[in-house]
Design a protein that fits this description.
The chain is mainly α. It contains 13 helices and no strands.
């Protein structure tokens, strides 16, 4: 998950740089790169391309597509760290939806930690006039669809190879975004194309490692590690885009990280669920 977070951060930088190109168009090109890489790896490793549970794989692709388009939109419109902070609400949605979709449990104390992180994001939005209410809610929707996608990955469990799960994302996304960009096309130049390709490669690496993490660990625990990406967002945003924040924005980010770290600590010290016990056996078998 730590590897995935780093490469997702590189993806964020690329998308932010391409703010002059519509988000849907970037998602389309990024999906083309992902499709080629996924299909090539699947064929090289002689893995069945279509998987076993096609309905869940398609549903995961649709949820992921919605999340990515909405998230890229916020990345281009508001400061990098602000967009990433809103997206970090996805573990909260992941944990809540996980109660109903994969029957995972969330302790009462964890809800306080989630609330702490959510309060941090609200503070950031409230003190930064560059983050409008419209894009705030667009970001929340992106986080919600991420939570749905993560739960579907956990629902699939180890029955599907991570590359198959990743392969279905561009398979679903390309037709949908392809139709849309016909009405809103911006021709990218040579540098733009290079960055788009690099965005696709970085995302492909990130998705494979993220999928492995969600297959073998409990959702409300592993999803929280993505919050570490806020550090990357602050550093990259400041160095590459000259983004600065007021003291209260930094305080909000600290609250986000505090809620995450407390949740991780609590999960490791106080909860040992049947899912986690099963995962230990599964990981040993697969490795």
């Amino acid at each position: 998950m730590l590897i995935a977070t780093f490469f997702f951060s590189l993806m964020n930088v690329g998308v932010k740089y391409l703010s002059h190109i519509p988000a849907v168009e970037i998602v389309f090109f990024r999906s083309v790169v992902s499709l080629v890489l996924s299909f090539s790896f699947l064929k090289f490793k002689r893995i069945h391309v279509w998987g076993n549970n096609k309905k869940l794989l398609i549903a995961r692709g649709m949820a992921g597509a919605m999340s990515l388009v909405l998230y890229f939109t916020t990345l281009q419109a508001i400061p990098l760290a602000g967009a990433v902070s809103i997206q970090f609400l996805s573990p909260i949605f992941t944990a809540i939806l996980g109660i109903f979709i994969v029957n995972e449990k969330v302790a009462k104390r964890q809800w306080l930690f989630f609330l702490l992180s959510f309060a941090g994001v609200v503070i950031i939005q409230g003190v930064d006039n560059r983050m409008t209410t419209f894009y705030f809610f667009i970001g929340i929707l992106a986080a919600l669809f991420s939570g749905i996608a993560f739960n579907i990955i956990r629902k699939l469990g180890v029955s599907e190879n991570p590359l198959v799960i990743v392969f279905y994302f561009p398979l679903v996304t390309i037709p949908v975004t392809g139709l849309y960009i016909l009405t809103d096309w911006v021709t990218p130049n040579g540098i733009d194309l290079l960055i788009i390709i690099l965005v696709g490669i970085a995302t492909q690496i990130a998705q494979v490692y993220m999928t492995k993490a969600f297959q073998h660990e409990e959702l409300s625990k592993i999803a929280s590690l993505r919050y570490i990406g806020i550090i990357y967002a602050l550093v990259f945003g400041h160095i590459l885009f000259g983004e600065k924040f007021e003291i209260f924005s930094y305080a909000g980010m600290v609250l986000v990280l505090a809620g995450v770290m407390l949740n991780i600590w609590y999960k490791q010290r106080h909860i040992s669920s049947p899912v986690e016990k099963e995962n230990k056996i599964t990981k040993t078998t697969i490795q």
